[in-house]
């Protein structure tokens, strides 16, 4: 990637901006795709010669191949951040993305599970040991009762679980710490899990380990949640993030302040949290139509 400084940019966001590994990989993929497209179609081998018309051609290629607008926006965002870095370091004198028009994104409401269905979730008991059963319960309840992200759950340190104060310290995006309270039932569930974990001589560094002593990982967690949710919902999407959406939506439906939900989710801006208010408004509309005599 000589002449493009992509590796320098990735090192910058990884070590100085402290972006998550998955985010860095996404940036790397987006920028590699961008570089290859420019080199192949315009025979340019450095970012300072790229013109806005070349960027438009790149975007048009995505549209022609029916790439989702959200994906296109993400790729453009990667290139914008990249050029911002290049400008800052005097590698280029201008950015070709200043007035670029992008395809409109359709607004998708977060998918969430009904509260009654969440209350009916039961961890699969067949072919499970006592340890596996408890581990699965802890994972499901942590997602739903705290709203943490999958990466945050996987990297939870046991020392950051304070059962006395009933709170959890979470390391979020860009190494930002936040404190999330936990209810009595979650506290007791985690305490029971730690006891059986200690009796199994498993490491106490991270909170969650599989029974064989190996750490849990992204795909394993995703498949576990998908399997558990299959029993309670017909939603096509069944992922840890659906539980995070459910956590936020149920809090707002019950009257929680949006700023408090923002802090619990670890969002950097209120705009990211406001998407959940649409679900709340839809619920109010339904209630209004059912209850008001002239609705």
Plain-language structure description:
This protein is 56% helix and 4% strand. Helix 11 (258-265) crosses helix 12. By secondary structure, it is mostly helical. It folds into 2 domains: 6-88, DNA polymerase, domain 1 (Orthogonal Bundle), CATH 1.10.150; 115-290, hpI Integrase, Chain A. The chain has a 3-stranded antiparallel β-sheet with strand order 1-2-3, with no helix packed on it. The mean pLDDT is 89. It has helices at residues 6-16, 21-42, 52-64, 69-88, 115-119, 130-146, 150-154, 184-199, 218-230, 240-253, 258-265, 270-291; strands at 161-162, 167-171, 177-181.
Low-confidence stretches: none
CATH class of the largest domain: Mainly Alpha
Helix content: 55-70%
Number of strands: 3
Q: Which value, in Å, is the CA radius of gyration?
A: 23 Å
Portion of residues in beta strands equals under 5%
Write a concise synopsis of the structure shown.
The chain contains twelve helices and three strands, in the order αααααααβββααααα. It has 295 residues and is mainly α.
Helix and strand topology:
Blueprint: H1 6-16, H2 21-42, H3 52-64, H4 69-88, H5 115-119, H6 130-146, H7 150-154, E1 161-162, E2 167-171, E3 177-181, H8 184-199, H9 218-230, H10 240-253, H11 258-265, H12 270-291
Antiparallel strand pairs: 1-2, 2-3
Helix pairs in contact: 1-2, 2-4, 6-8, 6-10, 10-12, 11-12
Which features would summarize this protein structure in a list?
hpI Integrase, Chain A, 56% helix, 2 domains, mainly alpha, 295 residues
């Amino acid at each position: 990637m000589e002449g493009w400084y992509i590796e320098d940019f990735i090192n910058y966001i990884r070590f100085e901006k402290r972006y998550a590994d998955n985010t860095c990989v996404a940036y790397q993929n987006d920028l590699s795709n961008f570089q290859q497209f420019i080199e192949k179609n315009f025979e340019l081998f450095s970012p300072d010669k790229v013109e806005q018309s070349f960027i438009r051609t790149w975007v048009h290629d995505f549209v022609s191949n029916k790439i989702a607008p959200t994906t296109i926006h993400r790729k453009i965002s990667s290139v914008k951040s990249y050029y911002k870095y290049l400008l800052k370091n005097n590698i280029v004198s201008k950015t070709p993305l200043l007035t670029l028009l992008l395809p409109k994104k359709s607004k998708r409401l977060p998918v969430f599970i009904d509260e009654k269905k969440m209350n009916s979730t039961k961890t699969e008991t067949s072919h499970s040991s006592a340890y596996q059963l408890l581990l699965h319960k802890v994972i499901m309840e942590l997602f739903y009762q705290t709203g943490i992200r999958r990466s945050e759950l996987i990297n939870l340190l046991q020392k950051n679980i304070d059962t006395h104060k009933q709170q959890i310290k979470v390391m979020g995006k860009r190494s930002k710490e936040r404190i999330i309270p936990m209810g009595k039932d979650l506290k007791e569930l985690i305490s029971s899990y730690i006891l059986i974990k200690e009796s199994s001589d498993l490491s106490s560094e991270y909170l969650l380990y599989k029974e064989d002593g190996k750490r849990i990982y992204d795909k394993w967690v995703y498949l576990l949640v998908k399997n558990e949710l299959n029993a309670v919902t017909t939603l096509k999407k069944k992922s840890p993030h659906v539980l995070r959406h459910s956590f936020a939506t149920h809090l707002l439906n019950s009257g929680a302040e949006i700023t408090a939900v923002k802090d619990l989710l670890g969002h950097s801006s209120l705009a990211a949290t406001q998407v959940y208010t649409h679900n709340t408004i839809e619920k109010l509309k339904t209630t209004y139509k059912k209850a008001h005599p002239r609705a």
